[in-house]
Amino acid sequence: MRTDPDGTDGDDSDRSAREWCDEALTRLNAGRPDSALEAARRAADLDPAAEWPHRLISLAHERLGRDADAVPFAERAVDLAPGSWPARLRLAAALRRMPGRWAEAVAHARLAAKFAPEQPAPEVMLGDLALLRGEHAGAERRYRAALALDPGHPQARVNLALALLRWERPRPHHDPAWPIGPRETGRARRALEVWSRQARLLVAVATVAVAACAFLLDLGAQAQIGGFAVLALLVPLTVRHARRVGLWSYVPAMFGRDPWLGADAVSAAVAVAAYAAWLVLAAVPSALDPVWAGLAGIAVLGWPALAAVRALAEMWRGRPLRALAETAPATAAERTARRNAGVALWIVLGRTWSALVMVAAGALVVEPRAAVAAVAVPYPMVRGYLRARHRGDLPLRAAAGLVALAGPACAAGGLLGSAWAWRIGLGALGLVVPVFAVRAARAWWRGGPGPWRSSLLMCDLPVGGEPSVGLDPEVRQAFSYARGVVLSYGDPLGPRVAGAVASVTSSGELRLIAEAEVWEAVEEDPRVAVFASDPLQRRFWVEVRGVALADADVLRVTPKQVQVGEFPGRHQRRG
């Protein structure tokens, strides 16, 4: 007797390689990747030619955070069974985390989709690869294709909602297809962000200090000299951060992928230029008062203005109501779906609040009766809230109730001229701000998801652990000793059949020798079916459906499905 890594007793000699694989998959599903890795290694030792154990070893390494260790085993699984769609999918999942190997990941995922067009997992993987690059339209198309095959697929549901929300990956400046890793571009991004932050803060503080000294203390000349000293201080600061950037050839592409990063850097440069011009023109402020004040405003207010524009743009980006409709079916079973639904509701709430503020402000300034439009503004928010059935966020419910109250109250104030109705509506809108602040502070304190876009998560379920199709001894015997084997394959003119010579490898892969026209056909559509009959008693037949790929002078067929049937007659029953 011996003790398994999971604490159970058993006998190693009584378990086959496939039984160890089943055990490894069970442990992976139970959240024990260390124990699963040990079981998968035992399966690989018992049957080194089988590809399933290597896929499970790769998956266990990935679950343990060892992305680099997961790749070689996934590649070995593809070498052993090049026509296996789970092996291709496992390799795609492992390669997408490796710098410079993004194109390979896409190629393997496309092969998996070609080998198994009836499976949703390859389409989901292609959607994930597109989503991580910010290709939202392509990701949406792939996820919808996966849902057409399996309407209940949770990962496709959750990530389709992210595509509709125009979700940004955690490192939006980085292109996974670049040959450099995210750490290198991350260092460049941090250097640019720190420089822009320090430069804008310095010129803002210096502008206020110089203006205060000039107008309140009557020290204009001395203040101007001090202002130029701050400007001189920016030179070594800029040089130091420019050296830290290093990857200047990638900076324009980083700005293209993350426009807000570029906006930060450009706004900092504009603030410094405005500050320098302000110092030069400060000697004659009486002649250039508007210009002088405008330059000072750019230097001091540019940062808050950019932050406000970014917050408004983030609030109105994407289609959160459609995202909620797609996420709702998965919220009961998938935790990530519930989390993302809550964030999407906050986004809808922010849109509704900002729209009500604009309607109320316009009505107060132009025509009070125009406030009647405020009645309809909260309707999409209420509809989305009821559809999502989200009940775990008390501040969200409170804020939604305030916004729903503000719309009719402002409308009543505009139509009836009631000051109290206006006070109730505007007061409700004002109370939303502290409610949001309390919710944000609670999320910050607890380290949980906040009511903002950065809290959205991508659903990333493990892939590539599906069991391989095994051939039992009876099937092996049929193909090893059959006098005639029939190969069915696709052709532009329709299905075709041809004779072939077959053999079975120890790993359960079929090796076929067929005519040249078969080779040409399987290059376009590798899905084939191989038929053989019982060579000894001729009582039953075997059909193996799989994927055929050319290798040297043979076709390698990886089984996807095995069917065994009986010929009609008095020997239909087998004991």
UniProtKB/TrEMBL annotation:
Listed transmembrane segments: 199-217, 223-239, 260-284, 290-313, 343-364, 370-386, 398-420, 426-445
Keywords: Membrane, Transmembrane, Transmembrane helix
SMART domains per the UniProt record, alphabetical: TPR
Domain of life: Bacteria
Name of the featured protein: Uncharacterized protein
Source organism (scientific name): Nonomuraea terrae
Upper lineage: Bacteria, Bacillati, Actinomycetota, Actinomycetes, Streptosporangiales
